[in-house]
Here is the input.
Amino acid sequence: MAADGLFPLPAPPRRQLAPGAVHVPGWLDPPRQRQLAAACRDWALGPVPARAAVLPGGARMSVRTVCLGWHWQPYRYSRTADDAGGGRVAELPDWLADLGRAALADAWQDHAAARDYRPDTALINFYQGSARMGMHQDKDERSDQPVVSFSIGDSCLFRFGNPDTRNRPYTDVELGSGDVFVFGGPSRFCYHGVPKTFPGTAPDDSGHQAGRINITLRRTGLAD
Ligand code: MD3
Ligand code: FE
Here is the structure.
């Protein structure tokens, strides 16, 4: 293969839904999916256990979440998990922040933006059965750096909306195992949600047969 190593790799297939919102199907190869899924199941065990967060009105979310770097609960971040045993959250490992930077570089084809990306937290969501996530904005962060999302296991219906209302207009997209989605710039504060997952659709080689995992990397912009 004459071209091996001599030319840059082609950009991965990707689709821009709106300015700053880019979907890259299958960005994580199966070995990487398996490594991430195993790491997520490990983090779910502690030092802070994954838990279904309780909303201020008293309703419990159907998704279970564990956090790295900073603990999120509706609707604030802290270093300790005050609604899940009080322990201090595990560090966000450099390799995971680096993976987010690499995904951002590929999705946006913007190496300067990727160099400047400094995520300091990861929220890991576990969906099983009929778990879903209603339309919401992520605005507890004090930074407008992008959110990088990784999906593993079952596929889902993802609904990407607009910055002004939780209703139409929105675009429905299926997210599958290994997909990356980046939300930045004018898309960073758009409403979005997961109306449903598709149980039993996880590829055998994804390493996760117990539903869907979603990892989001973010910058909180908070300091101790
Ligand atoms: C668009 N998670 O954790 S990831 C969340 O699949 C969350 O578990 C969903 O929404 C999930 O807050 C969706 C995609 C996503 C994440 C953050 C966003 C889309 C976003 C922030 C702004 C706009
Ligand atoms: Fe969100």
Summary: The chain has three helices and 13 strands.
